[in-house]
Amino acid sequence: MAAPAQPEHSPGFKKPPALLRLKRKRPGRRSDPAAAAEAAAAPAPRGPSAAARRRNPFSSLDNAPQRAATAPQPPAAAPAGGDPSAAPFWQFLEPACEEKAPSRAEAAESSDILSLSQDLHSPLAVPQAPSSPREEFPADWSIKTRVLFMSSHPFTWAEHLKAQEEAQGFAQHCRAAQTTLPQSLQEPRLCSELRCAFQQSLVYWLHPSLPWLPLFPRLGADRRMAGKACPWAQDEALQQVLMSDWSVSFTSLYNLLRARLCPYFYVCAAQFSVLFRAAGLAGSAVPTAAIAPTTRGLREAMRSEGIEFSLPLLEESRTRKQKSSEESLETESTDGLGGGSSREDVGEPAPSDDDDDGSFSWLEEMGVQDKVKKPDTISIQLRKEKHEVQVDHRPESLVLVRGSHTFTLLNFLISCRSLVAVAGPQAGLPPTLLAPVAFRGGTMHTLKARALSGRARVQGGFEDVFSLEVLGPVLPHTLHALTLLLGPAQRGSFRALLSPHEPSAAFNAALPQEGQQQDLPPCGLHPRTLEQLRQSPTLGKSCIRLLEMKDFCYTWKA
């Protein structure tokens, strides 16, 4: 029986091996001398160069299937002066056996990739907030929960302190000893003074001291405290004992502050925090106390106790808005037709709920005063206080108490019911007291510090990057004391990433300047640190998040 006849193939059909051989020959075009001569004699294309076309070869691969499906037969060569995208995709492929030197466009692209990789993987690049580097950075009254220092020099001097160095650091703190290091240290790891001063700078004082409970921060800490042992939660007698002991420590701290032996301290409650500052700090000639965030209920309770206070951030915002509105009115009056404007546009101020005095004389003018129900006094009062209620729990709710009213505030806080939570994991737990110096009932604690090392990608390879992480309630004087040590130890160059406790950022609000500022004794702080804290705050309701030292000068970003 005869075998069935094989189907006839189309004359244009080529088997896959033959087509691949054809594709391998086309880019070089070595088998067609005439075509090569014709291509050499052809004028140079006016479009982009071959190197520019090859900048992203994958763009031509994306549309290759569509072009291959529409073309009945691949053309012999790409058009000399046409659109490069019309050429078949294999013309953009190079033979695997040939090597081609990178063109200028490829070199530029390679350098761009290296620079991008360097930006992504290099240590933190701190943008400069001030116009030029300065010898000192502004005081930051917010509490930091974590500080990460980074440098190209190792931090081996800050780890594995000897027992004698640790004891010496504690003794220097208790005796308020001052350590001044030279500007450059050849071998920081062998400098015992540096290591002792580092231990000294990590000390802070805390009350109450409950090792199994995280006592800072207290705002929003219910989740971290959930499930912890709280034997006082259902024991009212124990709660009274804790509160009585706390009141003694609080009063002791305030007396130290009034005697200018304690520069400042914090009271961290479950609903708000209070910063007490001695006279002479933050540009104020009298003791001050700042509370943030606050609510209308707390402010009303303070007013009822006769405590005079101000809302500096809210007042500053209102002043700024009023100034901008006056400037806009001025602009409208000068830019109006004929060089003037009507009284309705300029002379009359914009209506505001704050100026509502409850007068309804306009109803009498219309003759409908008896037909319209007038709002009661409570509604009018709520309307007047609309803006004050809107700032609750926000930075603008910062309350500032000055002078002798800080003592009234002390008594108010001791007897304030909202100072201690009545429900939840923090129920019955007195607020946390944080101070830079010893006080009655206070417990000495140290921040956790550990040195780390890693590698970062840079142009041409990798480089070693060293870091020092400090965890805990980093107080304002601690941050400055650490920078005084890191300058000489890291040869005047380091970067710092700061993680603030956000509600405490409002403490950087500027204080009103009244009276002559008094000099403050050292009170346990380094003279340079004290000088920094004496300056008026300039950060507003923000805080420093990025800090960089280069050649012993600072730049920062808030």
Q: Can you put this structure into words, describing what you see?
A:
The chain is about 35% helix and about 15% strand. The chain is α+β, with helices and mostly antiparallel strands and about 550 residues long. Among the domains are: about 145-160 and about 450-555, no CATH class; about 205-225 and about 230-310 and about 395-445, no CATH class. The strands form two sheets. The protein has a seven-stranded antiparallel β-sheet with strand order 6-5-4-3-7-2-8. β3 and β4 (about 275) form a beta hairpin. α7 (about 165-175) crosses α8 (about 190-200) and α17 (about 475-490) crosses α18. The radius of gyration is 36 Å and the shape is globular. It starts with 15 loop residues before the first helix and ends with a strand.
